[in-house]
Amino acid sequence: MPGLDTGNTGFMLLCTSLVMLMTPGLAFFYGGLVGRKNVLAIMMQSFVSMGWTTVIWFAVGYSLCFSGDTAGIIGNLDKAFLNGVQLDSPSALNPSIPEIVFIAYQMMFAIITPALITGAFANRVTFKAYLLFLTFWLLFVYFPFVHMIWGGGILAKWGVLDFAGGIVVHNIAGLAALASVLFVGRRRIAEGGPHSIPLVALGTGLLWFGWYGFNAGSEFRVDSTTAVAFLNTDVAASFAAIAWLATGWFFEKRPSFIGLLTGAVAGLATITPAAGYVSPVAAVIIGIVSGVVCYGAVALKNRLRWDDALDVWGVHGIGGFLGIVMLGMLATTAFNPAGTNGLLAGNPEFFLKQLVAVAISSAWAFSFTYGMLWLIDRVTPVRVGEQVEAAGLDSGLHGEEAYVGAL
Prior knowledge:
Blueprint lengths: L5 H28 L5 H28 L32 H19 L9 H24 L3 H5 L7 H19 L12 H20 L7 H29 L4 H15 L8 H25 L7 H19 L17 H32 L6 H6 L1 H6 L9
Helix pairs in contact: 1-2, 1-3, 1-7, 2-3, 2-4, 3-4, 3-6, 4-6, 4-12, 6-11, 6-12, 7-8, 7-9, 8-9, 8-10, 9-10, 9-11, 10-11, 11-12
């Protein structure tokens, strides 16, 4: 292949594998947080996305995101079923890697994004409704925002930046989670908290590890910006974990392991859009702010009695929003000449663009998700029946148990 860089290609294959690992990591993270009679149901929601989202991505998803342009909102179907993709086709974003590697890398992002939402409506949603939700949410929320920001659409042309998915992944998933919570309603049966904190720790470790591919890989080559994104990812996660731990310790009078782990994930979500555009010092600030503000968002959610079971809105919705806004403030060309300067470097116009973009994404993700759930509920019940919820979704929906014979 002319122009192929084997180093960049090898690196991107590694990053693709790391991002793939994040979805099983998410399954463990969520699985540990729910009660033992709902472990398999929520883990299956992540794993089924690995299969069904791949089918949709192969059929139309890649083409709608990265082929052509329709009104700046969505692509076309010229590359449906990977039509025209050849062994030597170069990636549009970086011709030194094959298009087939780019397709695989972006597919892993498509897989994990809707899976993030499932933590919000844990223990309450039928599997059939979830499959419909997964399908239509990808088609009408995820794919358009990928195209608008990463596929050369209207937001990209306007100058909006999102390095690895503050809007495209976390913000729209978090607002969809909030809409889902408000539509589905509270759980009838209160659970007694996480059934396995070690599983949560395992999931956090896999997510953190995979996030290096998520963020550093979004440079699509190996250079200094790649290294900055890698370092910023770890720095923000670490500072956010300690900030959440300290905040929780102050208010709850105990150091919580779940708090430490959740804080790390909040920091990872918040640094994602800024990872390759800011300095490591800025990543420290982003991490600390993330740990404190996302903790506060979860506390607010609890006070308002929103039953976001696994804090998807507080961690990913607010984290993604914060990341986009703080990128607008802290971006600097000193650490990425291909980026831009933010508000603190004398560019208020960029800051305002980021604010408008995240407001648009939040409004669309929330309103479409709520309306979509209403329509799905006309076709098939979204919420499980009271008996299934009482028995647990593992046995009630799937006829399987995570811990056979366990008390």
